[in-house]
Amino acid sequence: MEGIDNADELDLSSLVEKTHNINVPIGHIIASQKWKNSELHHALQSNVQVLFDDNLGVVDFFPSSKLGIVYISEPELVTFSGQKKKLAKLRKANRVQAVVLAERTATSGQYFPEVQKFCLMDLGFSIIPVPSQREAASILAQMVVSESHLNANPFLRRRTCHVDETLLTTMKSIPGLGGVKARSLLEQFGSIENICRASHQDLSKTLGKAGAASVLKFLQRD
Predict the structure, then answer these.
(1) Which structural domain range is residue 48 located in?
(2) pLDDT at 222 over 60
(3) Is the residue at 175 inside a domain?
């Protein structure tokens, strides 16, 4: 058994080692080969240029060179132990800023809060619930556009450096939450973890009651 565990550790280490030195052209997204011809791929390619690479390790998508997206499917969310090890290894390696997209459905929804807590509290990874691959494609496309604007305008990146741009990209993917309010939330609370812990009253000061309710619903805190 120990030999098997050691082999698993070696396999995970080799996968994590691949998550660096990724060069993503502006306006493109690099996807793991396993996503080719999937529903997500077809939805994504209508908005951005998709390049494939079979050597991305545990990361599924790179919307920019420094931002790696890990996709947790419905079955993986239900049986999370395998993905948990991969995410922990990725965090330990600290080679890429990671965001998790988790497929939260009627079947897997009951398991989402535990996974959300692990990603946010234990690893410090942003996590976004998505109902389907098509919705995930829309969020990924938004990330590509956001990162492209920042890379094309270095002055904008310097001017906004007090807010983590990865967190800003993640927050802007919440339906109905634009860049201005997303930035205000991050400036006020400092992290997505703190936003998740905030009360409806606290969020209402920045978003109004309806906006606060929408964010809490998205984070499954309603």
Answers:
(1) 2-132
(2) no
(3) no
Classify residue 44: in a domain, yes or no: yes
In 9-134 the beta strands, taken as DSSP E runs, fall at 28-32, 49-53, 61-64, 67-72, 97-103, 126-130
Tokens of 146: 């956001």
Residue 47 backbone dihedrals phi, psi, to 5 degrees: -115, -35
Q: How many domains does the chain have?
A: 1
Q: Which helix (H) or strand (E) holds 94?
A: none
The CATH number for 121's domain is 3.40.50.10130
Both structure tokens of 130: 């998505």
What lies within 8 Å, CB to CB, of 164 at 6+ separation is: 186
State residue 91 phi and psi, 5-degree precision. Answer: -65, -40
Q: Show the CA angle centred on residue 70, arms to residues 108 and 193, nearest 5°.
A: 75
- In which region does residue 214 sit, left (phi positive, over 0), alpha (psi from -120 to 50) or beta (all else)? alpha
The residue ranges of DSSP E strands in 116-188, in sequence order, are: 126-130
The tokens describing 108, both together, are 């897997």
212 found inside a domain: no
pTM of the predicted model as reported, rounded to 2 decimal places: 0.70
Q: What is the mean pLDDT of residues 159-186?
A: 73
In a domain, 160, yes or no: no
